[in-house]
Write a structure and sequence with these properties.
The chain is α/β, with parallel strands linked by helices. The chain has helices at about 35-50, 60-65, 75-80, 105-120, 145-155, 175-185, 200, 210-230, 255-260, 310-320, 325-335, 345-350, 355-370, 390-395, 400, 425-445; strands at about 85-90, 90-95, 95-100, 125, 130, 135-140, 165-170, 195, 235-240, 265-270, 275-285, 290-295, 300-305, 370-375, 380.
Length: about 450
């Protein structure tokens, strides 16, 4: 370091005989320690190489350490990764998930049902087979032993509580990651399943040096790292919503964006008070976005509205399309939802015992309001959506390991193959919309 120079200030080039900022001027190393001089020489050599376009062939050890984690396409292409694994197929993949919903909406019933299904190797939501049993840790931080026993007995209906179901009702704020980490170490290779109910009970206070967002993201990152370190494991965190509606369902997550941003998967559970019909919306880094109809029966545990996720997705679309409609319109939409490949007015009239002429009037109104699709003249289908996934597709690991097939083909929102056979007005509308978007794009470029 030169005399009179402030500590930490980078050495400046000697500019006595050259213009300022000139690389050819060279640096001055007077007053530097041997280590500082070595680093300054390496920095200067790198600057010359960069300016001349010559690749840097040797790096300072500290610089080399920065590049140790960089890999190339050849390495990535040669890897053979295991397929994505699920705790609850189609809904809860390995990694960190967060289940969000209003208080007393039934989140704890949902997670407890999943815990018992995974621990016993049974069925989640009464319909989804979870495969072989796995060890489960349930942090029921808002329950007592008595309440938990009562709920387990209601869900199991006389069957003994599975031995692989482990739980605790106490965990001090700030100790949750240590507790989960210690428990995971006892089950290596078992693809364990952990539920934290709720995040608020386990969340520590933010330290003086971090914001609330940094605290939220730190805790979620710690939990995610636990999942990443235990192959095939899944952690679900129960959390409240922010008691306000939002166009994007992910935005209902209470707290900062550090909570939703730190999770691999976000599940949002909703239900009107006093109603049994519910909706589970799902999105994540590894699974297709979806919305599935559920039923709370008999006011305590959740059941999938259908025999599989595909039927539950169809039921959810039908419920959305028929919202605010009369009985006949709702019945027609529900009937179309049961026939995703398409149905004609005559078939609907026969199935619902209505006159064909009446059905045609309703179909036209529903099509005009975009509640149903008309694939070609006279053939009606549910609105195409990216939100459905079948249980069969979930079991095919290729959809999760092959980027080309990452989203099941039939769930992609695209124009139908035979759209050219659609009625003339529909075709003109599509072409006109395309021209408008093109003209708008041209104006922006100008």
């Amino acid at each position: 370091m030169r005399e009179g120079e402030a500590p930490g200030k980078a050495p400046q080039p000697d500019t006595d005989n050259a213009a300022d900022d000139s690389i050819d001027a060279g640096p001055s190393f007077v007053g530097l320690t041997p280590d500082e001089k070595s680093r300054a020489i390496a920095d200067w050599a790198r600057a010359i190489d960069i300016a001349s376009g010559t690749p840097v062939t040797s790096l300072h050890p500290e610089d080399a350490a920065l590049l140790e984690g960089i890999r190339n396409g050849v390495w990535l292409d040669a890897q053979d990764f295991p397929p994505l694994r699920y705790a609850v197929p189609g809904l809860v993949p390995e990694g960190l998930s967060i289940l969000v919903g209003p208080p007393k909406i039934g989140k704890s019933w949902w997670t407890l049902d999943s815990c018992l299904a995974v621990a016993s190797g049974g069925y989640a939501l009464g319909r989804i087979p979870v495969g072989a049993s796995r060890p489960v840790l349930y942090l029921a931080l808002e329950d007592s032993d008595r309440r938990l026993q009562d709920r387990c007995r209601q869900l199991l209906d006389g069957v003994a509580i599975p031995p692989r179901f482990e739980y605790t009702t106490r965990c001090q704020p700030g100790e949750v990651t240590s507790m989960v980490a210690t428990w995971l170490c006892q089950h290596p290779g078992d693809q364990p399943f952990v539920v934290i109910d709720t995040l608020g009970k386990a969340m520590p206070l933010a330290s003086q040096s971090e914001t609330v967002y940094q605290r939220d993201y730190r805790i979620m990152t710690e939990l995610k790292e636990l999942c990443d370190g235990a192959a095939g494991s899944s952690i679900v965190v129960n959390h409240h919503d922010r008691k306000a509606s939002a166009d994007d369902f992910v935005d209902v997550v209470s707290g900062t964006n550090g909570i939703a941003g730190g999770a691999d998967t976000v599940l949002v559970l909703s239900r009107d008070r006093g109603e049994h019909a519910g909706l589970l919306r799902v999105t994540g880094r590894d699974i297709p976005e979806g919305a599935y109809a559920l039923t709370l029966v008999p006011g305590t545990w959740w059941r999938l509205d259908g025999d599989n996720l595909e039927e539950a997705a169809n039921a959810a679309r039908s419920a959305k399309a028929s919202a605010g409609l009369g009985d006949k319109s709702a019945a027609i939409i529900a009937y179309i939802g049961q026939h995703p490949k398409g149905v004609r007015a005559e078939d609907i009239a026969s199935g619902l015992d209505l006159q064909t002429s009446v059905v045609r009037v309703y179909l036209q109104r529903l099509h005009d309001s975009r509640r149903i699709e008309r694939q070609n003249r006279g053939l009606y289908t549910p609105v195409i959506s990216v939100m459905s996934v079948t249980s069969t597709e979930v079991g095919q690991s290729e959809h999760h390991t092959n980027n080309v097939d990452n989203t099941p083909a039939e769930t992609v929102s695209t124009l139908p193959p035979d759209w050219l056979e659609a009625d003339d007005q529909r075709r003109r509308d599509l072409i006109g919309a395309g021209k408008q978007r093109l003209e708008h794009s041209r104006k922006r470029r100008r």
